[in-house]
Specification:
2 domains, alpha+beta, 14 strands, binds 2-acetamido-2-deoxy-beta-D-glucopyranose, Alpha-Beta Plaits, Formiminotransferase-cyclodeaminase, Chain B, domain 1, six-stranded mixed beta sheet
């Protein structure tokens, strides 16, 4: 394979320890054609790598974890990452095939492209992740006419995702059995978004875009179909309910059980074991059994390793 001068030149300046990870969440986990369309777009850029994906039929939600590098100018400001183009193209594919008005699922959501979060990896910093979050937010707001709310390090005052979601009604299901169906919000938003219009398209909804340190996602199945008990346990485990600090939870209905979906915001301080133990204890008080939880993604170390392996495999192939 022959490289022209610019490609070779660029390759020299790419520092593969300045990496960003993007987690891209869409409100679709069932329609294979849609999932394929989004993935095809993600794979069409050889400089961005899908290191993992997670589809959940009951949640009707999917997540793609992508990694690439970030480049700086001579003053150290981030100026380019191949992730920007890939992520915006994935959003376009998602908006073209997901209609929130026809969507239903067990996981809350406000948008067809519900959440995009950037994490710094290896030697990259939060500033770079926040720069990319804001660049993608501007593109999505302007190109697709979708209201975008920035959060955490991408927000001017660091406003957190759960707070914005709560203000917008994210956690309120509109169908019995704790299901979210169709558009569940007024068409004119109660707050001005950071990018895009204040009037929402019911088909596309709202997108949340943020930057923050690594979040571990850990789900614990409860062997009961009683969602009110699952939600009670979820609340007691969460920081908000006076449980474990830095832990956020959601009680979710599954096919023949329920599940506590946990976001561990400081996984090195309060890890999955602590959460598992507390859930088991609280469930036992309700006379319920709990299964061992599962992680829905790799650790940051494994993600970096997978990325390095995938790009070096391609470099050495003829
Ligand atoms: C590796 O190369 C193949 C074929 O050229 C391409 O389809 C794929 O997207 C590349 N993957 C990465 C991680 O660069
Ligand atoms: C709530 O759910 C129903 C489906 O049962 C849907 O038709 C409707 O548009 C949704 N939104 C509101 C605001 O009721």
């Amino acid at each position: 394979m022959a490289f022209n001068y610019t490609a070779k030149d660029k390759k020299k300046t790419v520092d593969q320890s300045m990496l960003l990870c993007c987690k891209f969440f869409i409100s679709e986990g069932r329609n294979i054609a849609t999932l394929d369309a989004v993935e095809r777009v993600a794979r069409s850029n050889p400089e961005t790598v899908i290191v993992n994906k997670f589809h959940d039929r009951t949640y009707n939600r999917a997540r793609y974890s992508l990694v690439s590098y970030v480049l700086h100018d001579c003053t150290g400001n981030a100026i380019y990452s191949p992730l920007q183009q890939t992520v915006v193209a994935m959003a376009e594919a998602a908006f073209n095939s997901i209609n929130l008005e026809l969507h239903d699922g067990a996981h809350p959501r406000l948008g067809a492209v519900d959440d995009i979060v950037f994490h710094p990896l290896a030697r990259a910093s939060m500033d770079e992740a926040a720069w990319l979050a804001k660049a993608v937010a501007a593109d999505i707001g302007n190109q697709f006419n979708v209201p975008v709310f920035l959060y955490a390090a991408a927000h001017p005052t660091g406003k957190e995702l759960d707070k914005i979601r709560r203000e917008l009604g994210y956690y309120r299901p509109n169908v019995t059995g704790f299901q979210w169906a169709g558009w569940t919000m007024p068409d004119i938003l109660p707050q001005t978004p950071d990018e895009g219009p204040i009037v929402v398209s019911r088909a596309r909804g709202i997108s949340m875009i943020g930057a923050r340190s690594w979040v571990t996602l850990y789900n614990i199945p409860i062997l009961s179909t009683d969602i009110s008990v699952a939600r009670k346990i979820a609340r007691k485990v969460s920081a908000r309910g006076g449980g474990l600090p830095t832990v956020q939870t959601l009680g979710i209905v599954c096919e023949d059980s329920t599940e506590i979906a946990c976001m561990l915001l400081e996984p090195n301080q309060i890890g999955a074991d602590r959460v598992q133990n507390l859930v088991e204890m609280l469930a036992a008080q309700e006379g319920l059994d709990v299964e061992k939880g599962y992680f829905t993604d790799f650790s940051p170390e494994m993600i970096i390793e997978k990325y390095m392996n995938l790009i070096s495999a391609n470099r050495s192939s003829p």
